[in-house]
Every structure is written in structure tokens, then in C-alpha cells.
């Protein structure tokens, strides 16, 4: 493929019926710049921002992705810079009379023959890392757990070379909360399901304070953990009773002084480290991947380069029998008609509508709507409003039928393409995808974020060459080559697919290399007391 002249004025139009396109050139283009089509800029247009391709009269629709992203507030002659202050945002689509499971979809060929080296768990799930996780019931214990984790890392971990790391599952929930409010189910089940993430090998140990509202048996009620008796032989694994739930309670009277608490945690950690250290990687089909995709710090290139490449990889994964979750409810709300049309059956379409309704109501309690999503950085990067952002975001979901829907904090029950309803907030979305059972995380960014999570590898995909070059030791994949004409969407999609298999097999991402770990942030829509 020939590389276009970087000085040549260039725009990208997403659909033949679009009346705007985005300027690709680094640093934007000056007034008077002339495109190969003959279009001449009437004013300076920044990189990633929109230019009117034809005269757009006041009140007429502005189309990108073949979707109306706004109505012109004044006449916009061809060659004008089309930015947020010149657009009236359309109303959100009503959640009635939607197309239900209407999309005609041709069967695609299964994709066979791709595998990775993973840690198979007793419940059939597969880990991509071998981690000891320490679950906490309440924020009160976070400092103690943090102290203990440092000591475990320095004193115990070197004795167990097959264990990758130790992770304290610290959070701000657990007490001072209306724990019987209906929506409290969301943070509680999320924390429970995070403890059961495949990367923790089914080894659950809990540190509790003692007097907190979220008592250990409420967090992990009997039967919720498939505890395996590893005293039996590997072949003869069978579930055992709940008394084996392993809790260190700091207020226990046997604890005299701080160090006795640390000793208790270290002693229990050792038991789990012994067992985790026996685990080895084995060949697993690509179907065992559980990939969570999301974006953060988006710009106008997100929907042109990185997200379409992720969408291509999503289709490959689904063809390989894997599970892919897409999320971020406010960033798909404006495409609800596309989603209900792609639902595998009418039940899935109804579940999609249920999650959108729940979120509309949640936002309306705060007297806002989905448009509260966009950030100053999004707008600086060329995204005028949430409609434009959503059309670029949803591309990550690829083109396959939506097989199922998860409410926030729920655990996966099936394979295929799943809508896991979460806020778009990066760390809350990531936390809820962890709860669902994610073992690889894909994160696209245009503005740039150093995002990372301790429990799973995060592969970061840059939307622009400039970001990929400046953040060369933070970005794992450069999808900016799509905008510059150096690579196709398909090529970057395949590259990402192969990288996922390598990372799932143990290759470190940049976020892992630098140990960049954002906090777990539980989604708590219920009241605080
Ligand atoms: Ca996000």
C-alpha cells in the first residue's frame, strides 16, 4: 500500500450519504486548503474536526455514519468548520416501536485453529494470569490489606514462582450504605463476581472488619462459590461445604495488636499461594477468551480507526466461539435501534430495552440525560455531542448478532457477543466487566489515558499515529495507521486478534510492564447513609 503525501489535505467520510467528513491532517488545515475533490476550506479546521462537504442550510440535518448527529443552527456553506456550537443535538430515540431482531444475517464461517496458553479452572473458565486475590468486605480494612499485600509480595511471592502477583480487591463499599435498598444488589453482586474472576483460580480469601454492613456471608452466601477440595486428588475434585470460606476478621478477639492481623492474613495467603503455585498453563481454544471492550478519552478518530479495528477483531472472536462484551450504556443509547435490530431473538431485544430504560431513569433522577457523557477532551478532539460519540463507540461491537444481555455486576452465562450494561466511566465499566468474568481487556483511546487494571491484562489501542508515537511505551497497538493509509481496518483487526492470543498466553502489556493499576470502582446506584 502506498503511503499518501502527509502534506496533501485529506478528509475521511464514513458513509456515502454523509454531508460532513473529518480532517485527517496532523495539526489540522488552514483556511484555503484545497482537497483533491476540489472542496476548499473557508476557515481553519482542527485535526479530527468536521468540515461541511456541501452547503447545509439552517435547520437541516448534519449526517455522519449515515446518522443525523445534529441540526444546523445556522447556514453552513461547503468548506465550513462544523463544531458543537453550530449543532442542535437530536432527542434520544424513544424506547418504543423499535425494530426487533429484524437484521438479516448471513451465517459466517466458524474460525478454527486459534489457541492460547491459559490456566483452566475447575468450573471450566480459563484464566490468563495466575493471581492471588484478597477480597475485602469494606473499605475500613483497605490500609491493613495494602500493608499485608506489600509484605506478601516481598516475602512470600518469591517462594511461589508460578504465581504472577497478589491483588488486594479494595473498594469504597461495605458500610455506611443502604444495604437493603433494591439497587444495592448491584455493588454486592459485582464484588462477589469479581472475587470469582477466572484469573483468581477459584481461590477466594476474604478480609473483613467485623462490624460492617456487608458481612462475609452476605457477600459470598453459601453455594455462591464453587469451592473445590484440593486435598483430594486432581481428578477427584468435588465441592465441599461453606465452612471453608476463608475469612480473616480483624476484630476477632484473637488479634492482639496490628502485627497479629498481618500474621493472620499472611498465614492464609500462604495456603492459597501453595495451591495457585501448582497451576500450569495449557493449550486452550480461542473460544475460552472472554474479552471486554471499551473506550476512553475518545476523539473523532476513535470511530474511524481504533473502534472499527476492534469491531473487526470482535467478529473474529465471535466466529472463533469466544465471548466479547461491549458496554457503556450512554454510548450506545443513541444506537438502540441498531442494537434491537441485531438482537439474536426478541427476548434479547427486550433485555436491551430494559437496560436502556433503567439507565434513562437513573440519569433522570440526577436531572440529566445521556448527553452528560461527553467531556471537554472529547469535544476538543472533534466529537460534537453524544450522538456522534455513540456512533463511533458502538462500532467496537462488530456486526454479529447480540446473543445476550447482562445487568450491571452480573456474571456471564453464555458465549458470543454480549451487551454488559455498565456506565461508560472507564474504571466502573472495567470493574463491572471484571465481575462478568473478563480475562482480556481491550481499551481504545484517542486523547490518551494510561488506564490499567491489576486483575486482567489491558491492551490499549491508539486512534492516531501522533498519540501512538508520543506514548510509544503506553500504547500496545497503533490504529492511527488506518487514517494515514498505512494499514487497513482488517490488518489492524487481525494484528489485535493475534496480540490478544499472545497476551492471554502471558505476554505483558505496557500497563502490566509499568504496573499501572486503576482502582476498582463499584457502581452503587443505591443511597449512602
Ligand atoms: Ca469508557
The assigned structural class equals alpha/beta
Helix content: 25-40%
Oligomer: single chain
Mean pLDDT: 94
Number of domains: 3
Strands ordered across the widest β-sheet: 17-18-16-15-19-20-21
Q: What Rg is obtained from the alpha carbons, in whole angstroms?
A: 24 Å
Main sheet: strands, sense, barrel: 7 strands, parallel
The overall strand count is 21
Uncertain residue segments:
227-243
User: Which percent range describes the beta-strand content?
Assistant: 15-25%
Which ions and ligands are bound to the chains?
A: calcium ion
Quickly count the helices. Answer: 14
The end-to-end span amounts to 61 Å
Shape descriptor reads globular
What does this structure look like?
The chain is α/β, with parallel strands linked by helices and 529 residues long. The chain folds into three domains: 1-88, Archaeosine Trna-guanine Transglycosylase, Chain: A, domain 4, CATH 2.30.130; 131-278; 297-514, no CATH class. The chain has 14 helices and 21 strands. It has helices at residues 142-156, 185-195, 216-219, 258-276, 306-319, 336-342, 346-365, 376-380, 386-393, 426-436, 465-470, 480-483, 489-504, 510-513, and strands spanning 11-12, 20-23, 50-52, 61-64, 67-72, 81-82, 87-88, 115-120, 126-127, 131-136, 165-169, 205-208, 246-249, 282-285, 290-295, 323-326, 402-406, 416-420, 440-445, 458-462, 477-478. The strands form five sheets. Strands 17-18-16-15-19-20-21 form a seven-stranded parallel β-sheet, with helices on both faces. Strands 1-2-3-6 form a four-stranded antiparallel β-sheet, with no helix packed on it. Helix 11 links the parallel strand 20 (458-462) and strand 21 (477-478). Helix 2 crosses helix 10 and helix 6 (336-342) runs antiparallel to helix 7 (346-365). It is globular and about 80 Å long. The termini are far apart. The structure holds calcium ion (CA).
Amino acid at each position: 500500500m502506498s503511503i499518501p503525501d502527509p502534506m496533501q489535505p485529506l478528509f475521511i467520510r464514513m458513509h456515502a450519504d454523509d454531508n460532513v467528513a473529518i480532517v485527517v491532517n496532523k495539526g489540522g488545515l488552514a483556511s484555503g486548503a484545497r482537497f483533491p475533490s476540489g472542496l476548499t476550506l473557508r476557515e481553519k479546521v482542527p485535526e479530527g474536526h468536521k468540515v461541511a462537504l456541501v452547503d447545509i442550510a439552517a435547520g437541516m440535518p448534519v449526517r455522519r455514519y449515515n446518522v443525523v448527529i445534529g441540526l444546523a443552527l445556522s447556514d453552513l456553506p461547503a468548506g465550513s468548520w462544523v463544531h458543537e456550537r453550530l449543532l442542535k443535538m437530536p432527542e434520544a430515540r424513544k424506547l418504543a416501536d423499535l425494530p426487533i431482531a429484524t437484521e438479516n444475517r448471513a451465517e459466517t464461517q466458524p474460525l478454527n485453529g486459534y489457541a492460547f496458553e491459559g490456566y483452566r479452572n475447575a468450573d471450566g473458565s480459563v484464566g490468563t494470569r495466575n493471581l492471588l486475590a484478597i477480597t475485602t468486605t469494606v473499605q475500613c480494612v483497605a490500609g491493613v490489606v495494602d500493608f499485608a499485600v506489600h509484605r506478601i509480595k516481598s516475602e512470600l511471592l518469591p517462594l511461589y514462582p508460578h504465581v504472577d502477583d497478589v491483588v488486594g480487591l479494595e473498594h469504597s463499599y461495605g458500610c455506611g450504605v443502604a444495604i437493603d435498598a433494591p439497587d444495592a444488589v448491584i455493588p454486592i453482586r459485582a464484588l462477589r463476581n469479581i472475587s470469582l474472576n477466572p484469573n483468581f483460580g477459584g481461590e477466594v480469601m476474604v478480609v473483613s472488619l467485623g462490624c460492617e454492613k456487608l458481612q462475609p456471608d452476605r457477600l459470598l452466601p453459601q453455594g455462591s462459590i464453587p469451592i473445590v477440595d484440593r486435598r483430594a486428588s486432581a481428578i477427584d475434585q468435588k465441592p465441599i461445604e461453606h465452612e471453608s470460606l476463608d475469612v480473616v476478621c480483624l476484630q476477632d478477639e484473637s488479634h492482639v495488636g496490628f502485627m497479629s492481623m498481618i500474621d493472620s492474613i499472611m498465614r492464609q495467603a500462604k495456603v492459597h499461594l501453595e495451591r495457585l503455585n501448582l497451576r500450569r498453563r495449557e493449550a486452550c481454544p480461542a473460544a475460552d477468551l472472554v474479552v471486554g471492550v471499551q473506550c476512553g478519552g475518545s476523539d473523532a478518530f476513535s470511530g474511524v480507526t481504533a473502534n472499527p479495528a476492534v469491531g473487526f477483531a470482535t467478529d473474529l472472536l465471535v466466529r472463533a466461539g469466544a465471548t466479547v462484551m461491549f458496554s457503556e450504556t450512554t454510548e450506545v443509547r443513541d444506537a438502540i435501534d441498531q442494537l434491537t435490530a441485531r438482537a439474536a431473538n426478541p427476548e434479547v431485544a427486550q433485555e436491551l430495552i430494559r437496560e436502556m430504560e433503567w439507565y434513562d431513569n437513573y440519569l433522570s433522577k440526577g436531572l440529566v440525560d445521556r448527553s452528560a457523557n461527553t467531556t471537554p477532551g472529547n469535544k476538543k478532539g472533534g466529537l460534537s455531542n453524544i450522538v456522534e460519540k455513540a456512533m463511533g463507540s458502538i462500532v467496537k461491537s462488530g456486526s454479529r448478532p447480540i446473543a445476550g444481555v447482562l445487568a450491571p455486576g452480573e456474571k456471564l452465562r453464555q458465549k458470543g457477543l454480549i451487551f454488559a450494561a455498565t456506565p461508560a466511566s472507564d474504571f466502573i465499566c472495567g470493574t463491572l466487566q471484571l465481575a462478568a468474568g473478563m480475562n482480556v481487556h481491550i481499551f481504545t483511546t484517542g486523547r490518551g489515558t494510561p488506564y490499567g487494571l491489576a486483575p486482567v491484562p489491558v491492551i490499549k489501542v491508539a486512534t492516531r499515529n501522533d498519540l501512538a508515537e508520543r506514548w510509544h511505551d503506553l500504547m500496545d497497538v497503533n490504529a492511527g495507521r488506518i487514517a494515514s493509509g498505512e494499514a487497513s481496518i482488517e490488518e489492524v483487526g487481525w494484528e489485535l486478534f493475534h496480540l490478544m492470543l499472545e497476551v492471554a498466553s502471558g505476554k505483558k502489556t505496557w500497563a502490566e510492564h509499568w504496573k499501572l493499576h486503576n482502582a476498582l470502582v463499584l457502581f452503587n446506584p443505591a443511597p449512602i447513609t
